[in-house]
From TrEMBL:
Domain Enolpyruvate transferase: 8-430
Keywords: Cell cycle, Cell division, Cell shape, Cell wall biogenesis/degradation, Cytoplasm, Peptidoglycan synthesis, Transferase
Name of the protein: UDP-N-acetylglucosamine 1-carboxyvinyltransferase
One GO location term (cellular component): cytoplasm
Gene3D superfamilies xref list: Enolpyruvate transferase domain (3.65.10.10)
Natural source organism: Candidatus Roizmanbacteria bacterium RIFCSPLOWO2_01_FULL_37_16
Reactions catalysed, as given in the entry: phosphoenolpyruvate + UDP-N-acetyl-alpha-D-glucosamine = UDP-N-acetyl-3-O-(1-carboxyvinyl)-alpha-D-glucosamine + phosphate
Length: 441
């Protein structure tokens, strides 16, 4: 199977691209569409491996979910006839645990495998399980089978305050609260734009959801009906990747269907380091190299802070910036899989220890003082990068390695591109349209 890119780097990328639909909205809206008792039409769904896996999973449960044209998916939950997700499908798509919501409403009981860790850390779902219990759901983990068994004996009720923000946790508890016995309040929720988009979809379909800062109040409704097809918003992570590519390759890329408000902190940081950023129209922006880049300090945070998904891309920019930069990752443990790979291209990049007074509060994962973590890096630039053979370990690191290979002088091979293609639609074609020399091998 072709699973690598051959890249000839070292030239500025120039041109225009249109963003695809947001992966992290599409996946959740497809799952939420299983809460309806009639077919739901969704537009601008990116045809990426993660979405394709989710559609397979829904079909393995008896549901219907298919692309009917390039980016339109119809989901029909009426034929769902299984309440147990098999391990094979669950292992391919982490958000499978979000199916607790539709399966519990459909069958009152379901069996869902523990999503487990992944390449960006342990990723437990303890807060999510705790929240489900607070809403009255019986849920137990059977360590001998690796499955959760959940039961909804009565309509959900109550309230839950997340001890720390969780993005998918907030989304799952919203879905579970839609047809409750009474008003349900969720507090200290995540406030990522993707969650607002899921809420917009649900409200358009008749849900009664009120948002006050980090508090979300859900009033019960009987059913959901979507009056017309729902269009998924554009992918802000893809916007960041192509903006980074423009500046790091010393080129200029115009991005259409962009929503600047969703990447405000990234735009601010780009301006601070001296990159060119122009708003050309309502959803049209230009990103370009203007000359010497300044070093920076980045600390990842939930929205509206600098997002964790952007830091691997940012590291490339910092290899081209003047002086020493730091990146401190607060959201996930183990999100620096790209460090060793960038060193192969000649990047001057090292793990750093930044003393933190209260790591349990500072980090958003469950900090364990007995474990060793690498949560910060230092990058010295500007550094000319040369070609090399690189291995992709996780999605965002994958895009980073491709950018690095495009910036580097000479030929590179990037292996494991199916991981990258889980989240980026037509990545190779888009890069080629900007003049990048990239070929699947
Ligand atoms: N966490 C727990 N217990 C929980 C829930 C979360 O310890 O019960 C920890 C996580 O392990 C993590 C931190 O809390 O260290 C925050 O996790 P969160 O739940 O917010 O992340 P997520 O919902 O698993 C989503 C996106 C990620 C994105 C983060 C942050 C999807 C499918 N995934 O993950 O996207 O980085 O929110 O916004 O929406 C990506 O697209 O490449 C990606 C990783």
């Amino acid at each position: 199977m072709e699973d690598a890119y051959l890249i000839k780097g070292g030239k500025p990328l120039k041109g225009t691209i249109a963003l695809s639909g947001a992966k992290n909205v599409a996946l959740k809206v497809i799952i939420a569409a299983l809460l309806f008792d009639q077919p739901v039409t969704l537009k601008n769904i990116p045809k990426i491996n993660d979405v394709i896996e989710l559609l397979h999973l829904i079909k393995s449960l008896g549901g219907m979910a298919d692309f009917v044209d390039k980016n339109t998916v119809i989901v029909d939950a009426r034929s769902l006839n299984k309440n147990r997700i098999d391990l094979l499908h669950a292992s391919k798509i982490r958000v499978s645990f979000m199916l607790f919501a539709p399966l519990l409403y459909k069958f009152s009981e379901c069996f869902v495998p523990n999503p487990g860790g992944c390449r960006i850390g342990a990723r437990p779902i303890d807060r999510i399980v705790d929240g489900m219990k607070k809403l009255g759901i019986d849920i137990e983990y059977d360590s001998s089978s690796g499955f959760y068994r959940a039961q909804m004996k009565a309509k959900p009720s109550g309230s839950y305050k997340f001890p720390k923000e969780t993005h998918t946790g907030t989304e799952l508890l919203i879905m579970l609260s839609l047809f409750g016995r009474e008003k349900i309040t969720l507090d200290n929720t995540a406030i990522e734009p993707e969650i607002d988009e899921l809420i917009r979809f649900l409200i358009l379909s008749g849900a009664k959801i009120q948002k006050e800062g980090k508090k979300i109040i859900i009033y019960p409704v009987e059913k959901l009906i979507l009056p017309s097809p729902f269009e998924i918003m554009s992918d802000r992570n893809e916007a960041v990747t192509f903006a980074t590519l423009a500046v790091a390759s010393k080129g200029e890329v115009t991005i259409s269907s962009i929503q600047p408000g969703n990447i405000r902190m990234f735009i601010q940081k780009l301006k601070e380091i001296g990159a060119g950023v122009d708003i050309l129209g309502k959803s049209l922006m230009n990103f370009y190299y203007r000359g010497k880049l300044k070093s920076s300090r980045i600390e990842t945070q939930p929205h509206p802070g600098f997002m964790t998904d952007w830091q691997p891309n940012w590291a490339i920019l910092m290899t081209q910036a003047d002086g020493e930069s730091t990146i401190h990752e607060r959201i996930f443990e183990n999100r620096f899989s790209y460090v060793e790979e960038l060193r192969k291209l000649g990047a001057d990049i090292d793990y750093a220890k930044i003393p933190i007074k209260n790591p349990t509060d500072y980090f958003f994962f469950n900090f364990d003082p007995s474990k060793k973590y690498n949560q910060a890096i230092k990058i010295k630039g500007p550094q000319d990068l040369h070609g090399g053979v690189l291995e992709i370990a996780d999605l965002r690191a994958g895009a980073t390695l491709v950018i690095a290979a495009l910036v580097a002088k000479g030929d590179s091979v990037v292996n494991g591109v199916s991981i990258l293609e889980r989240g980026y639609e037509n990545f190779e074609a888009k890069i080629r349209s900007l003049g990048g020399e990239i070929e699947k091998i």
